[in-house]
Amino acid sequence: MKALSPLTWHPALVGALAVAAGAYLVVTRRDTFAVSRSEQRRFAAATVLVYVVCAWPLGDLAAHVSITAVVVQRLVLMLAVAPLLLGGLPDLLIAGLTRHRTVDRVVRTLVHPAVAIVVVTVVGTMTLLPPVISWGSASAQAGGVFIAVTLGLGIVLWMPVLGSIPGLPKLSNTAKGGYLLAASLVVTSLSFVWIFARHPLYGSLTHQVRILGISPLLDQQLAGFVSKLGAYFPMWAIAFVLFARAGDGGESDEPDLRWVDVQRELERVDRDSSADPAAGPANSNPPTVAS
Predict the structure, then answer these.
(1) Distance between CA 10 and CA 3 in Å, rounded?
(2) 3-class SS at 39?
(3) Second label for 8, Cα 20 to 30 Å away, from 76, 103, 178, 179?
(4) Is 63 exposed, middle or buried (0-12, 13-18, 19+ CB in 10 A)?
(5) Among 253, 266, 44, 290, which Cα is nearest to 165's?
(6) What is the average pLDDT across 265-269?
(7) DSSP secondary structure string for all residues of 89-107
(8) Residues 192-208: what's their mean pLDDT?
(9) pLDDT of residue 247
């Protein structure tokens, strides 16, 4: 297959990543959005991983051949790229990107653990249905949308854990660990369908025998096991680390409060008072900062 040729370098993907990296460098050169070395390394790692999972060979296998490759690509984007990307952005840049009233309201909703799990499960399941996989493999543009949605789901998944969005309630280590355990059990909703289905479900994915040496049904069953184990191991490991930190007497289980959180809460108070002039003196009380 031409799509699997080692000479396929995906120039559109390279160009998009180059633009993203260039924009990051330009923005973070400003004193306002200065980044640390560790943040730069996280962003660079996220960029490299996106290329690895979206280019040859894994990206081409996921687009045309194997549902197992789709699952591996998805796990890397959601469990590795998304948290690295969030961790690579400075607090003030995230504050600027989420300052708009509508964006602020959306992220305030999505950061709730129950909402995040529901959104990731429902939207994630829909994006793995056979018609959607077929649509995503039809063109490079559709595949790009599929990748962007998957990465967005990963960001939603990790927002309650990383607490990087300013001015939003932050979970304790115990709550973070519990959230990750719960999320790991529901974000792989189609895995049992893949394992126990008696017929291949993805007609748009072909040539598994010729390229991978396995049947379409076995590829589908492998996808089910990879989906479960690939989510359980990393998410459970992080959850148990968080539980251990919570139980360590030398480390507080209370979330930290940053100045950017205080600023965001003050901005909300100003917006509310300007939207409701009749509130008058009721808005003059000191704001309560989300913690």
Answers:
(1) 10
(2) helix
(3) 76
(4) buried
(5) 290
(6) 84
(7) S-HHHHHHHT-SHHHHHHH
(8) 94
(9) 80
